[in-house]
Design brief:
The complex is a heterodimer of chains A (111) and B (115). Chain A is mostly beta strands and 111 residues long. Helix content of chain A is 0%, strand content 54%. Chain A is built from no helices and eleven strands. In chain A, strands 2, 4, 5, 9, 10 and 11 form a six-stranded mixed beta sheet that branches. A five-stranded antiparallel beta sheet of chain A has the order 1-3-8-7-6, with no helix packed on it. In chain A, a hairpin with a 4-residue loop joins strand 7 and strand 8. Chain A is globular, with a radius of gyration of 13 Å. Chain B has 115 residues and is mainly beta. Chain B is built from no helices and eleven strands. In chain B, strands 2, 4, 5, 6, 9, 10 and 11 form a seven-stranded mixed beta sheet that branches. In chain B, strands 1-3-8-7 form a four-stranded antiparallel beta sheet, with no helix packed on it. In chain B, a hairpin with a 2-residue loop joins strand 7 and strand 8. Chain B is globular, with a radius of gyration of 13 Å. The termini of chain B are far apart. The chains are: A mainly beta (111), B mainly beta (115). The interface between A and B is medium-sized, with 21 and 22 residues.
């Protein structure tokens, strides 16, 4: 079993839809959870960061962490075509150490 | 927020030549930087951890003599791809932890094409 599992998609939704992206992990020591957005031929851009369990909201984005289930989610409300990108979940047990990434989910929001 | 600058963003070179990629933390000090490689439609693969003032730590399967990493200051790490071959063509991305914020920030990446 890989440390981090993420469905690569592709996921295609109409504009305005609510998007749900998820990752599961096996290492119970993970405490730092991040979601990155990567446009084609660009470096990943940090979207959301969560420490330990709980929810975090930032504009149209909500990140959820359920450590008991080893499951994290990113919700995008009122999705826009500009949200079309690859979304990568990433996590680590300790700060200042390499992140373990999911494979990324390719999202297309159709106008 | 923290900014990581990476240069060049795109480089094309002939087989057998060496290419240097620079990674700078612009507004914070980074004792540790990470170098990743990403092939098309695949996720990021960690190549090595670059430690300021000491040797880099390479991941299994990454040739340290081919991918030379130097982290001479708290704001600069370099990756040199020596004797590059077409199979080294990839997207190389650096990142750095912003201490205290516990956030990993990425550079924009460098696309290497070896002819």
């Amino acid at each position: 079993q890989k440390e981090v599992e993420q469905d690569p998609g592709p996921l295609s939704v109409p504009e305005g839809a609510i998007v749900s992206l998820n990752c599961t992990y096996s290492n119970s020591a993970f405490q730092y959870f991040m979601w990155y957005r990567q446009y084609s031929r660009k470096g990943p851009e940090l979207l959301m960061y969560t420490y330990s369990s709980g929810n975090k909201e930032d504009g149209r984005f909500t990140a959820q962490v359920d450590k008991s289930s080893k499951y994290i989610s990113l919700f995008i409300r009122d999705s826009q075509p500009s949200d079309s990108a690859t979304y990568l979940c990433a996590m680590s047990a300790v700060g200042n150490t390499p992140l373990v990434f999911g494979k990324g989910t390719r999202l297309s929001v159709i106008a | 927020g923290a900014v990581v600058s990476q240069h060049p963003s795109w480089v094309i070179c002939k087989s057998g030549t060496s290419v240097k990629i620079e990674c700078r933390s612009l507004d914070f000090q980074a004792t540790t930087m990470f170098w990743y490689r990403q092939f098309p439609k695949q996720s990021l693969m960690l190549m090595a951890t670059s430690n300021e003032g000491s040797k880099a730590t390479y991941e299994q399967g990454v040739e340290k003599d081919k991918f030379l990493i130097n982290h001479a200051s708290l704001t600069l790490s370099t990756l040199t791809v020596t004797s590059a071959h077409p199979e080294d063509s990839s997207f190389y991305i650096c990142s750095a932890w912003e201490s205290g914020a516990n956030v990993l920030t990425f550079g924009a990446g460098s696309r290497l094409t070896v002819l």
